[in-house]
Amino acid sequence: MPKFFNRKVLTIIVTVVIITLLSLYILPISIPLISAFITALFLDPAVRVLRKRFNIKRKLSVLIVFVLFLLFSGLSLYFITTKVIGEAIQFAEEIPTYINQISDKWEIYEKDLLSASEDLPNEVVEQIQDEVGNFFNSVKSGLTNDYVNLNKISSFIGGIPNYLVNILVYLIALFLFMIDLPKIRATIYKHLTEKTADKVNFMTSRLSYVVLGFLKAQFLVSVIIFIATLLGLLWIAPEAAIVMSVVIWIVDFIPLIGSIVIMAPWFTYHFITGNIGLGTELAILATVLLIIRRTVEPKVMGRHIGLSPLATLIAMYLGLKLFGLLGFFIGPFILILFNSAKEAGIIKWNFKL
């Protein structure tokens, strides 16, 4: 066997292969269990504080925190379901109307184009008209067939039982993890030497600090975005200010997406339909929100988690491809876990080729 392929290198290769296989095949179907374990870790400090302050048993403190978590999640879900999704369904139902309005506006622009292009060859004018007409027809059919589609709605309704099973598994696993977390911790430490246990302690404390810092940073930035959006929309469109501010706040909380996903189609629609004033105000608000996000987020993130923007982008992209939407958070979490293990000395990363 060549000198390079010693036992240590072979162990590293086997470990990497096992982790890769787990990441590709096991982890994606274990999202409810992984999410429950991570949530239990986040709620454990509240359990310990409640137990210490009121001198009660752990099971009772776990039950209180779990019930409070259920109430908060239930109220949030109720608000999102009744308000945000209701508005989204109404918007989806009115998409054909919006497309027809845009088509009517284009007919007016088309007449102006004909009068302005009298000196151009007829073939050029006809080609422009055909291309734009085909574009609007394809957009209209795509929106009405792809988004307002009974087959997709029925498939979503058919998948509701699977979603309910995942939620039920998540809640049961969360409660059991919260109860057994000290036993799990003790079982892990039982198989560690004193030196390794110190490293794991350092890694977990560092990981908790960074993860909480990440969530705190995201929350602070999203609160600033929500306040700026609400104030702006109360001035621009007060009838939709609260609902749209909540929608933009929820979307903006997701990394890499941002409020521009909501604002850009909104002001573009008003520009096309001829409402230049409202479209301009919405475009200015979108620019302000983008500037706030791009100036505040790097400073807050850098101070709280210490990850470079490039590493965060790569982690979020790979997480999205492997785990779906939750990968936006799982990817950076794995990167933070790796960095914490490297700082604790558990993972040796000093090598030369």
From TrEMBL:
Main location per UniProt?
Answer: membrane
- Where are its TM segments located? 9-27, 62-81, 163-181, 209-236, 242-264, 271-292, 312-338
Q: Which keywords does the record carry?
A: Membrane, Transmembrane, Transmembrane helix
The record's section on InterPro entries has: AI-2E-like, YtvI-like
Q: Where in the cell is it found?
A: Membrane
Topological category with respect to the lipid bilayer: Multi-pass membrane protein
Q: Mind telling me what this protein is named?
A: Membrane protein
What organism is the protein native to? Bacillus coahuilensis p1.1.43
